[in-house]
Structure formats: structure tokens, C-alpha cells
Amino acid sequence: MNKNFENEIRTISKTNLDRDKDISRNIAPVSNDRNYLKVIEEFFSLSEKAVNIYNSISGVEVLSARMLPKEFLELFLEIPGRRGGACIISPSRLVLFFDEDPQIITVIGKIRNSEDSRNNTTSKATQLLKVSFSSHNGKYEYKDNTGGALNPYEIVSLLIRWVAA
Fold it and tell me: Smallest Cα–Cα separation from 47: which of 96, 83, 82, 93?
């Protein structure tokens, strides 16, 4: 690697070290953030398992699951003030999980444009689900917008069915 490049990056880092320490002290997660991050991690973990099962049966990697940093939601989806999310991706569709309110996960889906239709108008994202969550005895409970109980495995199965359609 170029020594001038390395030295320049080191200088930038040292210059910004004190500033970054001050910023990081002010970004400590609040309890709602911890709960939300645990819930998103649970959905991501289940999504990853579902994607692995689906891909092992299909014989090729058709689906993928990824964690999304909050900056992605703000930059590409223009959804500010979010704490991060996750997505499930197929060649034709995309599903995104992100927080809307302190204890609500919003799930949107989008049909991806094929290379043939790049000049056509882009498809809009569609809200697929809103899932509220609460913690009871250290375990999370999920409900739909009518208050009906939801099973996280069933939610992920439904979303795999949608993204793989």
C-alpha cells in the first residue's frame, strides 16, 4: 500500500479522534432502542435461516438477507430518524423491516425493476405489515394492527412467500 496514503489516513484519524469521542458519548442507545434492536435481530436471524433453507432446496442462492444500517434508510429511502433494519432480497422483489414508532416494526415490499423495464416508471413500495411488539417475562410478543397475536416464524414465512413469488 502507498505509504503517503497510509500516513494521510492516520493523520485524518488523529485529527478527528477527539471529535469522534465526544459524538460517540452522546449516542448511547436508550432502552427502546435496545428492545427494537433485539426485535430486528430476531427477525433478521429468522430471515437468514429461512433464506438458507430456501436456497439449499433451490440449489442456488436465490434469496439473501442483510442487516441495514440506519444511514441506508435515511439516505436511500429518505426515512430519517430510524435505528436500522433488515431486508430480504430476491431477483424480483425486496422486503424491508424498519422501525416506525418506538414499538412498531413496519415491513414494506417493493417489486424490483428488471433490466428490460429500466426506462419504465419505478414501482412504489407497498406496506406489507405493521407489527407491534412488547416484552413480557423476557420474551417478545408480536401483534398485528388489529391486536391479534403474531408468530415471528409465520411472519417470516409469509414474507419469504411474498419475496419469492
Answer: 96
